[in-house]
Amino acid sequence: MSYDLESIKKSEAKKTPLTVIHGTPGIGKTTFAAGFPKPLFILTEDGLGSNEVDAFPLCGSMDNVFAALETCYKLKEGEKETLVIDSLSALEFLIWEKVASDHGKKNIEDIGYAKGYIYALDYWRDLTLAVKGLLSRGVFKNVILIAHSDISRFESPDSESYDRNVIKLHKRAFQFFYEQADIIGFASQPIFIKKVDESSKERAIAKDKGGAVLYLKEKPSLIAKNRYGMPDSIPFTSTDFLEALHNKK
């Protein structure tokens, strides 16, 4: 196969990002996603709280999740604008159950040589292709994938090891979404350490700095990224996120 010069075209900026949001428990990840325009939730855990949004019934299996995605393809452009899957961390257990069932096992660990986690990637790929298809067709303008965070020890090749906040998924699934996501945001409550002197003994007290923050650039202590030149961090609200996203396009 060969190309001529006329085949060279200027690429267009991608305007429909695939976004993964992870963060500490109770930080408001679901509330953040519920603030996006016309949201529709696919729930794999009961975490809506007081948020009143349109949602499919709680999915108890991977088949339920794919059935919900299939229904989304029947939506007309403009009916909904934001698809939210809440959460990837709970969804992973459904995938593991599906993989185990596919291979006649009770548990994914029963599949030898840790191949079960490799098989699980096929379902993650199918899920990602489905949501990207919804974006490319214009059914949704945003896809928000919510995940829990976990603290993992990072063995650095050029420094001492240290802890960092990562997406709470098996390492293979985590790496997959690290590559596939256009935006990964880590939400947390910033704190400062105040030292007080009690009976001539210093004691550190942690105090919060105010509102929650969404970090959009990776640091040694956390996993984050964005492909849109967004600020390193913003207030953790849907309004601030959308403003930062569209102002940089």
Largest sheet: 10 strands, mixed
Shape: globular
Instruction: Please compute the radius of gyration using only Cα atoms.
Output: 20 Å
Number of strands: 12
Alpha plus pi helix count: 6
What structural class do the secondary elements suggest?
A: alpha/beta
Which stretches are poorly predicted, pLDDT < 50 over at least 5 residues?
204-208
Helix-strand pattern, N to C? Answer: EHEEHEHHEEHEEEEEEH
Helix content: 25-40%
pLDDT averaged residue by residue: 89
Textual characterization of the structure:
By secondary structure, the chain is an alpha/beta fold. It is 30% helix and 27% strand. The strands form two sheets. Strands 1, 2, 3, 4, 5, 6, 7, 10, 11 and 12 form a ten-stranded mixed beta sheet that branches. A two-stranded antiparallel sheet has the order 8-9. The protein is globular and about 50 Å long.
Q: Quick recap of the structure?
A:
By secondary structure, the chain is an alpha/beta fold.
Please outline the helices and strands.
Layout lengths: L17 E6 L5 H6 L4 E5 L10 E2 L6 H11 L9 E5 L1 H15 L12 H22 L5 E13 L7 E6 L3 H10 L2 E6 L2 E8 L2 E8 L4 E3 L9 E2 L6 E3 L2 H10 L2
Parallel strand pairs: 1-5, 1-7, 2-3, 2-4, 4-5
Antiparallel strand pairs: 5-6, 7-10, 7-11, 8-9, 10-12
Helix pairs in contact: 2-4, 3-4, 4-5
Considering the chains and any ligands shown, give keywords for the structure.
249 residues; alpha/beta; two-stranded antiparallel sheet; 12 strands
